[in-house]
Amino acid sequence: MTLLVREAQTKDAQGIVNILNPIIEEGLFTVLDITFSVEEEKQFIQDFPKRGVFHVALNEEGSNVVGFQNVEPFAAYTHAFDHVGIIGTFVDASCRRQGVASSLFAATFNLARSKGYEKLFAYVREDNPNAIATYLKQGFEVIGTAKKHAKVRDTYIDEILIEKFL
Ligand SMILES: CC(C)(COP(=O)(O)OP(=O)(O)OC[C@H]1O[C@@H](n2cnc3c(N)ncnc32)[C@H](O)[C@@H]1OP(=O)(O)O)[C@@H](O)C(=O)NCCC(=O)NCCS
C-alpha cells in the first residue's frame, strides 16, 4: 500500500474519528470508552502538546486517513520524565496488515528522537495480542503486567507494559 505519512492537521479530525470511534464502540482493543465528536477531535489536535508527535497515514490518493499514531509526554508535573513518551496507534479495520502501522512507526521514531525523546512507553491490553505483536516487531519489550488495571464493561483486564529505547 502506498502511503503518505505527515503530521496531523485539524482537517484530519473527521478521518481520525472515523477510525477511532468504531474501535471504541467495539470495546476490544482500547480502554477508551467514550467516542469523540469531530469538534472534540479538532480541539484535541489544536491543543496537542508542542513536544508531542501526532502522525496520520493517508491512502495513496491522500483522500482518506487510514491510520494515526501519537506520542504524548509521559507527565507534565515534573521534568524527570521529559525523555519518555506514551505512544498509541490505530489503523482502520479495512487497512490492517498492509504496513500502515509500520510506516507510522518509522516516521514517529524519527520525529520523537528529534524532539528529545529517548524512550517510548505504552500500556496494551493483555487481550490484544495483535497490538502486542505489532509493538514487539518494532523493537518494544514487555517489561511487566499491571494486573486488573482496566475494568471494561465490568470485566477486569490486565495491561501489558511495553517500552522501547529510541
Ligand atoms: C495493532 C494495529 C495498530 C496494527 O496495525 P497494522 O497497520 O495492521 O500493522 P502492520 O501491517 O504495519 O504490521 C506490522 C507487523 O506487526 C505485526 N502484526 C500486525 N498485526 C498483526 C496481527 N493481527 N497478528 C499478528 N501480528 C501482527 C506483524 O509482525 C506485522 O508484520 P507482517 O504483516 O509483515 O507479518 C492495528 O491492528 C489496529 O489498529 N488495531 C486496533 C487498535 C489497537 O489495537 N491499537 C493498539 C492499542 S495501543
From TrEMBL:
Pfam family, one: Acetyltransf_1
Superkingdom of origin organism: Bacteria
UniProt keyword annotations, A-Z: Acyltransferase, Transferase
GO molecular function: acyltransferase activity, transferring groups other than amino-acyl groups
Stretches assigned to the N-acetyltransferase domain: 3-166
Gene3D superfamilies the UniProt entry points to: 3.40.630.30
InterPro entries to which the protein is assigned, alphabetical: Acyl_CoA_acyltransferase (IPR016181), GNAT_dom (IPR000182), N-term/lysine_N-AcTrnsfr (IPR051556)
Official protein name in the record: GNAT family N-acetyltransferase
Originating species: Marinomonas arctica
